[in-house]
Design a protein that fits this description.
elongated, Rossmann fold, 30% strand, alpha/beta, Elongation Factor Tu (Ef-tu), domain 3, 2 domains, single chain
Amino acid sequence: MIAPAWRPALEAAARAPLTLVIGPVEAGKTTLVAALANALHAAGLTVALVDADLGQSEIGPPTTVGLGRVTRPLARPAEAELVAMHFVGVTSPAANLAGTLVGVRRMVDRARALGAARVVVDTSGLVAGELGRTLKQAKIELLDPDLVIALQRGRECEHILGAYAHAARPAVLRLPALAAPRTRSAEDRRRRREERLRAYFAGARRATLDLRRVALRAPPLFTGAPLGGEELAAVEEATGRRLLWGERRDGDVTLLAADALADVDLRTAGQVLGARVVSGWARGDLEGVLAGLEGCDRATVGLAVVRSFDLGARAVVVDTPVAVEAVAALTLSRERYPG
């Protein structure tokens, strides 16, 4: 069943190969997306759903943009068949706008390549202010959807939609948001996010990735010339910090320390080493964090929790449900695994 006020969305989405759904938090976007998926599937169309709500994802684990295929009636988008995911590494698009946009575009492209006749994109509730406008308009410009459905309680999306008032596309359909939304606190949302992550890693196994065979995309370690012992010792003496690793790329230096390096430490290191830019990482930044695993085609094959780094052996120990043989690259995030 679909709310009577939302019924115009069914006919509009049936005509639109690509539909983008936007609206504030708890407006009913996920409920509407499930209703659209069911109606389109019942009409005999091949339907794909792209879940771009990084923190409260239904399709794929949090920190990813997920792609699901509709093969049966859904109670929720989470029941779609997971086809692919793209690791963004954050739970809010505000923390990685570029990564979010790349992920959504890749999943839409993948859906089309798989032959989906109708693609529906669910989005996060970030619509307020300049950041919300920038993100949602960037998605519209990048995806060029046939239809944008905006759920609103008032005029929350008008600063986004106004730019398309006289444009030939996309078609814009304004619908009322859920009248009585179920309010979830930040704690509720955090708890749900942690439950989803734990469920994903329930079958994980301990594995070692050889960084001489697996590329470390981020952070940018092991891509420059290692600093010598005397250079590291000079920086340690000047800053009072214990360094574990350092490398130089042209005029830039990256340092890995036992503990966090303050801005003054980085400036001091730059003066000692004669470096234009010094970036610093702490060992704690690299352990206990979520990482995205990619195959040789640069597509995300799954997630991992980084447990430890062996700098001497150029290896990283992870927990992951993914077979090590499938991994060609590793991207660390700053999101920590719960617990």
